[in-house]
Amino acid sequence: MKDHSEMSVLYDASIFASQKFGGISRYFVELIKGIDSAQFKDNDCSFSVRLPPSVHINHYLKDIASQQSKFSKCVHVPPFRNTGVIRHAVNDALLGRFLKKTKIDIYHDTFYQMCRYKIPHGVKKCVTVYDFIHELFSDSWRNSKGDGFADSIKQKHQCIREADLLFCISDSTKSDLMNILGLSEDRIVVTHLASSLMSNFDLPINKVKQDVPQGRPYVLFVGQRGWYKNFMTLLNAFGLNAQLKLNFDLMVFGGGSFTTDESNEISRLGLTENIRLRTGGDHELIQAYAGASVFCFPSKYEGFGIPLLEAFDFDVPSVVADIPVFREVAGSAAVFFDKDSPEDCANALLRILGSVSLQSELKNSMRNQRQKYSWGKTTELTSHGYLRLI
């Protein structure tokens, strides 16, 4: 490695122009904060983060831009409908100008756009690979995205192949990357994600739980509900089990209004009085976790699954689909069920809800498991990856 006292790392604005909230943009903001302050005395090296001038809709980036003047040219704009194409076009022009006049050592692509830009010769290129949902569930995505589907997949794969170093957010994603694209593991680094929900609040968990409004106990579901998220399996687990329906509500946090199909299924299963649909920011999400009896994550596939760690932070016992990445992230700290079986999901929920000893056992396991994940560890592993490139 050559002597280099400070390396400049550029993160493009692609994900911030697309996401108001979300796991990927949260990951990059945590990485930006950590990398910008990281110093490695053994290597006589530190990092300087570069963010190009941009327009974006992201709340996490808005927060750090308001705190650090060096990011003041990242301008938050309202997320008006049908303006995404305009935001990305503006950012393409700003980034092109920025790359011509600014010296950088490493370019870290935030969402598979790197191959579209003229990156100066000698700059090392990194890509974070999140998952292979589009490839593994291609029929569903192709039907919903139309002709642009194949082009987006091609662009993703091109960015991955052109990268000097690839970061995967789980061993499961690394395995999919190697199997689907046939890449060697020599240029792959696994950097697990973490939860930052509680880090934004100073209150202890017990105090948060005291402030939760009282009501019927509930099972919590968080996030989008599209096909691979497998929400209908959880709905049917509730609807087909009299004990769950009689004694518990199902709180659905985020994901937008119910679709027509979801509303019809809720009505058919007789769950209208059991469903609580909630939206909001981190404070409302914290209260949702704090009051939950059980958290359920029924996805057929995930790249990592930050909500699982968020549930661990609140000592909420978790019922999760039996898929490789949840085995990796949860270890023995959750109860698993067959992702295609509403009956198995219902039985798993009732196992936890009916056993104080199992709840206590899971809480102990959760406390041990969550120690494995922190943004500090993510930053450290990413930094070491960068150092390999110089």
Report the sheet with the most strands, covering strand number, pairing sense and barrel closure: 7 strands, mixed
State Rg: 22 Å
CATH class identity of the largest domain:
Alpha Beta
Low-pLDDT stretches: none
Shape field: globular
Averaged pLDDT, please? 92
Indicate the CATH topology of the largest domain.
Answer: Rossmann fold
Class inferred from helices and paired strands: alpha/beta
Q: Count of helices? A: 18
Q: Fraction of residues in helices?
A: 40-55%
Total number of beta strands: 15
Kindly give the count of domains: 2
Numbering strands along the chain, what is their spatial order in the largest sheet? 2-3-1-6-7-8-9
Describe this structure in words.
The protein has 390 residues and is an alpha/beta fold. It folds into two domains: 6-194 and 374-389, Glycogen Phosphorylase B (Rossmann fold), CATH 3.40.50; 198-370, Rossmann fold. The chain is 47% helix and 16% strand. It contains 18 helices and 15 strands. The strands form three sheets. It has a seven-stranded mixed beta sheet, sandwiched between helices. Strands 12-11-10-13-14-15 form a six-stranded parallel beta sheet, sandwiched between helices. Helix 8 links the parallel strand 8 (165-168) and strand 9 (188-190). Helix 2 crosses helix 18 (375-389). It is globular and about 65 Å long.
